[in-house]
Backbone:
């Protein structure tokens, strides 16, 4: 499943540059994650990098976007494919 940023976000700006897929962006009030680009860092790292750097622990799994590791790897392959 992809990740989601909750209301506890303090807009500290540390998660956005850590995302290798460019899935994190500044929303209207807090940072948000594009579920179509989030692979939980599968294919890049062993752990989601945004979760590792978040000082307020506000980036849980998104229960509305359940995906298996295989699906996340397929998404990674599509996102990183050369056009």
Residues:
């Amino acid at each position: 499943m992809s990740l989601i940023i909750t209301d506890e976000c303090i807009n500290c700006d540390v998660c956005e540059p850590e995302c290798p897929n460019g899935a994190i962006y500044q929303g209207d009030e807090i940072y948000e994650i594009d579920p179509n680009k989030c692979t939980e860092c599968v294919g890049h790292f062993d752990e989601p990098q945004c979760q590792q750097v978040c000082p307020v622990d506000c980036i849980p799994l998104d229960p509305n976007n359940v995906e298996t590791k295989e699906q996340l790897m397929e998404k990674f392959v599509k996102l990183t494919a050369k056009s």
Remarks:
- The chain has one domain: 16-80.
- The mean pLDDT is 95.
- The chain has two helices and two strands.
